[in-house]
């Protein structure tokens, strides 16, 4: 039974901020939505409301960084780079300010539709010199994200989960490493964030169908350890498949493709994710099914990769599903 | 070897004249330049550096070092050009030149106030030089990239809030241009300063009513800047940009809990009246012909009380 954890960020941030007086809690009018409302109420001296004005917020945080503070920006991920892209680049990324951008509601984890869904954030941040990218996939990673982010000598963008979530791992994020979740030799599955849980479910069904799965979970997306993943790519016979809560251009699928091309790896790669499309508003489970981001999409992708039908059905995956994961999860609100 | 900056060794008016002469000479030799910015802003920058700013002696070499790379994890020795404004001590002021396009005038100001050697201007816009055309972080006197207009005041607000929190006495000054009020970020920054009662920010804005495409009224009308800024929460004083006494008095204005913004109404042809021929395209004056270059050379030299520039050599 997977343990469900409620609001791990709220506790983790408070603990980290109180131990580090140079950390400032920055909010852009989404304070309770980013689980920092109690922090605001209990520690007003360390909290700064920037209002709905992200352009000013980015440059302002650049100024705070110049003075030696380490601001943690809290808002939805999408609001940290679409409107204030220039300010993010000029005031934070270029001068390597130690600004920690906590981007909530990554990908389709919000019913808010196109304006709220950060579906290309990794692509944008990967192409931004000096930016580090971390992503959380469970409660343990959310609990360790503040410390991990604050260890970076420069700016960092984090995809952060909120609300109720499973605890899949028992060790904190170690920046620069990747998690080896299974070490089979037929296919390599690479996931990050919420797609890892899907892949863990798919792995059980795939193994039952006779496919030996090697599964890696990425929490550090940039900088990326190409050599480590190359060893895993070389260890499988049947090819590589990536599944991401992001468009397939510029995210972890592209990352793996680049490593394979750079090293002349002659293996097949299937990149699953949002296929050059925006999403719309809906529940996470509905959107993951509709856009092919779930365990079923992954098993079908493996069938395509291997060129053989495995006969895995939705029922097989439902049985592999850990019931507690979704029965306790609240519907995502705004 | 070089003169360390000594405040008020020369009058601010004399420094302003020196700035215009240097920018004029540079523009003549290079067949163009940011001449009009020198007309409008010379007294403002001269006043800031010669009187108002509390700065320590420069910490960087009088002759600027070449470009040494951008900020990067692999470039640990990187530093900005802010050392020309002195060290980052708690008691000293900091300055952001928000319109980085005024760099040529700002560099001339550093020379005239003994903070940079005249050789620095010879490096302007040369490949491999740190003395860039649009002031970069690593350019003399610059501390951040302000080439995209509108981000300067926000950066200053963040630094000022932090300095207040740390109990530092030094203030944060911003040199602004009026075109920046077309950017929404400027208004976000003012309301933020007012909301957080950031009153150690002071700005002086060159209100020359010009922007890249021409006269601001023809590009995008901005209305009554003073009233708008006051409504967003700033204390605003209007002055004649060519009257140093006006600026001295304006800087004394009380502004508890609010940022102070001095609107310096300037003449984009001040001290170079022949430039009016080029209205409304004043942003970067590139001479259209040898005839024009020669004519402007004689006229501006006469206005500034110097000999025409022998730009053929």
From TrEMBL, chain A:
This is Transketolase. Residues 3-168 form the Transketolase-like pyrimidine-binding domain. Keywords: Thiamine pyrophosphate. Its cofactor is thiamine diphosphate. PANTHER family: PYRUVATE DEHYDROGENASE E1 COMPONENT, TRANSKETOLASE-LIKE PYRIMIDINE-BINDING DOMAIN-CONTAINING PROTEIN. Belongs to the transketolase family. InterPro entries: PDH/Transketolase, THDP-binding, Transketo_C/PFOR_II, Transketolase-like_Pyr-bd, Transketolase_C. The keyword Cell membrane does not apply. It comes from the Bacteria. The keyword Cell wall biogenesis/degradation does not apply. It comes from Neptunicoccus cionae.
From TrEMBL, chain B:
It comes from the Bacteria. Coiled coil: none annotated. The keyword Kinase does not apply. SUPFAM superfamilies: Thiamin diphosphate-binding fold (THDP-binding). Keywords: Thiamine pyrophosphate. Pfam families: Transketolase_N. The keyword Hydrolase does not apply. Its cofactor is thiamine diphosphate. Residues 91-262 form the Transketolase N-terminal domain. InterPro entries: THDP-binding (IPR029061), Transketolase_N (IPR005474). PANTHER family: TRANSKETOLASE N-TERMINAL SECTION-RELATED. Belongs to the transketolase family. This is Transketolase N-terminal domain-containing protein.
């Amino acid at each position: 039974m997977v343990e469900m954890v409620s609001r791990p960020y709220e506790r983790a941030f408070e603990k980290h901020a109180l131990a580090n007086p140079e950390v400032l809690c920055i909010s852009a009018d989404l304070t309770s939505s980013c689980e920092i409302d109690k922090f605001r109420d209990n520690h007003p001296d360390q909290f700064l409301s920037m209002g709905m004005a992200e352009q000013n917020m980015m440059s302002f945080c650049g100024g705070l960084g110049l003075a030696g503070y380490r601001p943690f920006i809290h808002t939805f991920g999408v609001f940290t780079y679409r409107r204030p892209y220039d300010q993010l680049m000029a005031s934070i990324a270029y001068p390597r300010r130690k600004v920690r951008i906590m981007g909530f509601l990554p990908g389709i984890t919000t019913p808010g539709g196109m304006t709220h869904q950060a579906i290309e954030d990794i692509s944008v941040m990967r192409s931004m010199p000096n930016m580090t990218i971390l992503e959380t996939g469970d409660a343990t990673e959310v609990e360790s994200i503040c410390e991990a982010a604050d260890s970076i000598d420069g700016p960092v963008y984090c995809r952060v989960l909120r609300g109720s979530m499973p605890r899949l791992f028992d060790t904190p994020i170690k920046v620069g490493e990747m998690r080896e979740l299974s070490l089979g030799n037929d296919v390599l599955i690479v996931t990050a964030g919420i797609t890892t849980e899907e892949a863990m479910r798919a792995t059980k069904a795939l193994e039952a169908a006779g496919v030996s799965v090697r599964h890696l979970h990425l929490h550090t997306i940039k900088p990326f350890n190409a050599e480590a993943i190359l060893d895993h790519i070389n260890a499988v016979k049947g090819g590589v498949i990536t599944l991401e809560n992001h468009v397939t251009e510029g995210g972890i699928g592209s990352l793996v493709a680049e490593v394979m091309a750079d090293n002349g790896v002659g293996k097949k790669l299937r990149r699953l994710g949002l296929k050059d499309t925006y999403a719309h508003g809906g529940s996470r489970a509905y959107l993951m099914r509709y856009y092919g981001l779930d365990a079923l999409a992954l098993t079908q992708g493996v069938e395509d990769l291997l060129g053989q039908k495995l006969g895995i059905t939705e029922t097989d995956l439902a049985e592999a599903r850990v019931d507690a994961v979704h029965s306790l999860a609240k519907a995502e609100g705004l | 070897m070089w003169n360390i900056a000594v405040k008020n060794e020369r009058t601010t008016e004399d420094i302003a004249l020196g700035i215009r002469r240097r920018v004029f000479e540079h523009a003549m030799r290079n067949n163009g330049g940011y001449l009009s910015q020198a007309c409008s802003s010379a007294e403002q920058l001269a006043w800031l550096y010669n009187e108002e700013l509390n700065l320590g002696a420069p910490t960087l070499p009088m002759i600027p070092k070449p470009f040494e790379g951008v900020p990067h994890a692999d470039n640990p020795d990187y530093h900005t050009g802010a050392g020309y404004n002195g060290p980052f001590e708690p008691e000293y002021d900091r300055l952001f030149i928000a319109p980085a396009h005024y760099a040529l005038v700002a560099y001339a100001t550093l020379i005239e106030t003994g903070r940079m050697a005249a050789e620095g201007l010879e490096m302007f816009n040369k490949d491999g030089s740190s003395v860039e055309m649009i002031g970069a972080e690593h350019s003399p006197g610059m501390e951040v990239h302000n080439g995209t207009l509108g981000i300067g005041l926000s950066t200053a607000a963040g630094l000022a809030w932090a300095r207040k929190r740390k109990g530092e006495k030094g203030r944060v000054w911003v040199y602004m241009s009026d075109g920046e009020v077309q950017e929404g970020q400027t208004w976000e920054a003012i309301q933020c300063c007012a909301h957080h009662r950031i009153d150690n920010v002071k700005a002086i804005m060159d209100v020359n009513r010009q922007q890249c495409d021409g006269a601001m009224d023809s590009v995008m009308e901005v209305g009554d800047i003073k009233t708008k800024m006051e409504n967003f929460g700033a204390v605003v004083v209007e002055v004649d940009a060519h009257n140093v006494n006006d600026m001295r008095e304006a800087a004394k204005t009380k502004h508890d809990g609010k940022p102070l913004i001095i609107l310096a109404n300037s003449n984009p042809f001040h001290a170079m009246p022949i430039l009016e021929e080029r209205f409304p395209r004043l942003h970067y004056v590139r001479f259209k012909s040898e005839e024009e270059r020669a004519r402007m050379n004689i006229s501006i030299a006469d206005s500034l009380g110097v000999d025409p520039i022998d730009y053929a050599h």
